[in-house]
Design goal:
single chain; 62 residues; mainly alpha; two-stranded antiparallel ribbon; 4 helices
Length: 62
């Protein structure tokens, strides 16, 4: 599963705003694979305020 698909499947359950580090920690808890974790680590260090903003950051606009 690509990082964008993984995020699309799991983003609805996230509490926003969310930092990149919070996102990585939550992805680890949910069992994300190495490719997804690497993609999340490559995101800009910022706070994400919505699912749409997060998905756009990984190239998957909703």
């Amino acid at each position: 599963m690509t990082d964008a698909l993984w995020l699309a499947d799991h983003a609805e359950g996230l509490d926003f705003p969310l930092s990149r580090e919070d996102l990585i920690r939550r992805a680890q808890e949910l069992g994300a694979d190495t490719a997804v974790l690497q993609a999340l680590r490559a995101l800009p260090v910022e706070r994400f305020t919505s699912v749409e903003q997060l998905l756009a950051a990984v190239g998957e606009p909703r």
